[in-house]
Write a structure and sequence with these properties.
- This protein has two domains: 207 residues, Medium-chain alcohol dehydrogenases, catalytic domain (Quinone Oxidoreductase, Chain A, domain 1, Alpha-Beta Complex); 137 residues, NAD(P)-binding Rossmann-like Domain (Rossmann fold, 3-Layer(aba) Sandwich).
- The chain starts with a strand and ends with a strand.
- The chain has 13 helices and 18 strands.
- The protein has 376 residues and is of the alpha/beta class.
Length: 376
């Protein structure tokens, strides 16, 4: 079938992207679903810093690439052996397809699925090959999703069925921003009632973590960023204190607020200096969690003796260390109860044609989550 899609043509092209246009909006061909695959009509898709890191070259991928990994839509057709979905189902896309059989999947850690990681690395679907082309030229998939397009053919293991009564622009944010941020709080960081937490980096993922820490009952939630507007939004999302980390004495101020440091600090920046700030903000015996995706060449340095003498923990969190089929339902329930106001993440809706300008806004820190509305 023919459809309109956003194709990344060149990595590392300098901005402003609205002028240099590294992403073209063009007609492409999409093949229908094969075994255990599903065709969805995309309703809404969010612009994420992970997408921006591909555009700017921090995390290069194969080109040409149909972009996008965070979305929600409606099932149009299913391939052979699909046993979880049928036409009309509302679904959220997940950017790690899970095979269900490898070591991590058997351990209940589908975010670390080995075949899923391998297929994402090659830009192909977990079932093998690409379903995308343009004038006979193969186009690559982004993390098995490629949702900056009117339709997507994906593995059924890249989808979670959700309640059709919840708006699709809200559910779209569950597939990355909320799943990653809230998952890091509940699954990786084990944030609990009465504890203290710092959240460093207040994009869509970080603000989701602030909401989740509030829902988890954390007593002190310190939101950290360098942009005043994001600090204001963090207070609306449940932060009890905010700190501008660009100001002199920011770390000491945080330590004073929390009697020497927080129980759990979470970094969502993809910046090693910010990760070190999060580590230093954590108290003795505390846990530092990072869900940021820095340039692969970036290296963080920490005093090794502190891991032993202070019994510190430093750990990563990918896809919120979660089980998407379980966690997305949990987070949707918290949204429905008013305990996670996910709508506060949404800066605005844009057309697919405005995607280059949207990435300018994201890079400048002028947006949390811009959502491509395919009804426009």
């Amino acid at each position: 079938m023919k459809m309109k899609a956003a194709v990344l043509e060149e990595i590392g092209r300098r901005g402003p992207y609205a002028e240099t246009r590294p992403i073209s909006i063009c007609e492409v061909d999409l093949a229908g679903p094969r075994d255990r695959e599903v065709l969805i009509k995309v309703a809404a898709a969010g612009l994420c810093h992970s997408d921006l890191s591909v555009v700017n070259g921090d995390r290069p991928r194969q080109l040409p690439l149909v972009m996008g990994h965070e979305s929600a839509g409606v099932v149009q057709a299913v391939g052979p052996d699909v046993d979880q979905f049928e036409p009309g189902d509302h679904v959220v896309t997940v950017f790690v397809p899970s095979c269900g059989h490898c070591g991590p999947c058997r351990e209940g850690r589908p975010a670390l699925c080995e075949p899923g990681a391998a297929s994402n690395g090659t830009g192909l679907l977990i079932g093998g090959g690409s379903r995308l082309s343009r004038n006979g030229e193969l186009l690559y998939h982004m993390t098995g999703v490629s949702c900056f397009a009117e339709y997507a053919t994906v593995s059924q293991n890249s989808l979670v069925k959700i309640d059709s009564m919840i708006p699709l622009d809200i559910t779209a944010l569950m597939g990355c921003a909320v799943l990653t941020g809230a998952g890091a709080v509940f699954n990786t960081g084990d944030v609990c009632p009465g504890c203290s937490t710092a959240v460093v980096g207040l994009g869509g993922v970080g603000l989701s973590a602030v909401m989740a820490a509030h829902a988890a009952g954390a007593e002190k939630i310190v939101a950290v960023d360098i942009l005043p507007e994001k600090l204001k939004i963090a207070q609306q999302c449940g932060a009890t204190h905010v700190i501008d980390s660009s100001k002199k004495g920011a770390l000491e101020k945080l330590q004073d607020l929390t009697n020497g440091g927080v129980d759990t600090a979470l970094d969502f920046t993809g910046n090693v200096q910010a990760l070190r700030f999060a580590y230093d903000a954590t108290r003795r015996s505390g846990t530092t969690v990072t869900a940021g995706l820095p340039n692969p060449r970036a290296v963080v340095e920490i005093p090794a003796v502190g891991l032993t003498a202070e019994e510190r923990t430093l750990k990563g969190s990918y896809l919120g260390s979660g089980v998407p089929s379980r966690d997305i339902q949990r987070f949707l329930a918290l949204y429905a109860q008013g305990r996670m106001p996910v709508q506060k993440l949404m800066t605005g809706k844009i057309r697919l044609e405005d995607i280059n300008a949207g990435f300018d806004n994201l890079e400048a820190g002028q947006a949390i989550r811009q959502v491509i509305d395919f009804s426009q």
